[in-house]
Model the fold of this input.
Amino acid sequence: MSRVLKIIGPGLSILGACAFVVNLLLGSGLLSPAIELPLFDVQQVKCHGDRIYVALGYYSRIQVYDLGGAMVDVLDAGNFSKPYSFWIDEHGLPVVRVRGLVREEELPDVFLDGGRYVIDAPCDVEIEQSVLYLIVGGPFYPWGVALLGLLLTMIFNSRDVARFFSRMNPSKLPTGPTR
Done:
């Protein structure tokens, strides 16, 4: 059991650091998988026909969902992680407008429901993700995971950490001439 506790902290630190690097690649557009990404930095939510469009600012993309809340498509917003708004044209495609701020009335209703992060779309459909998935999303939350891992490492390995720092204690360094 103690071995398991000793690896939890470093595991979380590694997970947090890796999630940070992956999110940097996603945010810069160097990595753009056709999978559902965390609902981080939601700019707008619009309904059109049988589709729900969710604009994610940091990831520079619009994730398209069906009325059941399942993701069906990903569209590139081309906004380079800047705030943006969009409207749907006559062909059902979003037209993106990059701008400094998203108006308050255009921001979606989001809330936590137990362990789920929920977006309430204007067409009375809820899009849900696990809060755990959201924690590894974006550029900031992964650092919290990494710091938590560092803290747990220090707690679960406190004897080893104390032994390590005691070796570095200047009062225990040899003094005087050496041969």
Notes: Strands lie at 42-48, 51-56, 61-66, 71-76, 84-88, 94-98, 109-113, 116-120, 126-130.
